[in-house]
TrEMBL record, chains A, B:
Compartments where located: Cytoplasm
Keyword NADP: no
GO biological process: 'de novo' IMP biosynthetic process
Listed GO CC annotations: cytoplasm
Any one GO molecular function term: phosphoribosylformylglycinamidine synthase activity
EC number assigned by the record: 6.3.5.3
Pathway: Purine metabolism; IMP biosynthesis via de novo pathway; 5-amino-1-(5-phospho-D-ribosyl)imidazole from N(2)-formyl-N(1)-(5-phospho-D-ribosyl)glycinamide: step 1/2
NCBIfam families associated with the record: phosphoribosylformylglycinamidine synthase subunit PurS (TIGR00302), PRK05974.1 (NF004630)
Family under the similarity heading: Belongs to the PurS family.
Quaternary structure annotation from Swiss-Prot or TrEMBL: Part of the FGAM synthase complex composed of 1 PurL, 1 PurQ and 2 PurS subunits.
Parts of the chain that traverse the membrane: none
Keyword Nucleotide-binding part of the UniProt annotation: yes
Organism of origin: Kaustia mangrovi
Recorded name of the encoding gene: purS
Record protein name field: Phosphoribosylformylglycinamidine synthase subunit PurS
């Protein structure tokens, strides 16, 4: 089973990478961009085949290692 | 319109960040993990409301700035 995890900064947390992209896009002539936020995307290939157990395991991974839950949110999507 | 962009390394491209996560997970006692790949996740808030034009614009952003298409793939999802 494959877990696709998006880790994003919470609203209100300063995002200098996003700001840098925003600025670069405007320099390159892309107008009409209101805001850019950058996060991480992680794919984890699991041996577990049960969806509920896989989700619980990936949640534990996010809480302990993959996301800093003080400033980041995470979103898990499971696929076969 | 909001564009959600996933930028991932192509198959076969070495991913040291993914390997580091893999190793850390195993050290933390998470077994049954076959492979980890890390990519980037970018959210762009656009003023454009037409889906086709928004997609074309975001594709141009990916090709010129957001992804290095020699070693990376990108995937665009649009949401209102």
């Amino acid at each position: 089973m494959k877990a696709k995890i998006k880790v994003t900064l919470k609203r209100g947390v300063l995002d200098p990478q996003g700001k840098a992209i925003e600025h670069a896009l405007s320099t390159l002539g892309f107008g009409g961009v209101d805001e850019v936020r950058q996060g991480k995307y992680i794919e984890v290939e699991l041996e577990e085949t049960d969806e509920a157990r896989a989700r619980a395991e990936v949640e534990a991974m996010c809480e302990t290692l993959l996301a800093n839950t003080v400033i980041e949110n995470y979103e898990i999507e499971l696929a076969r």
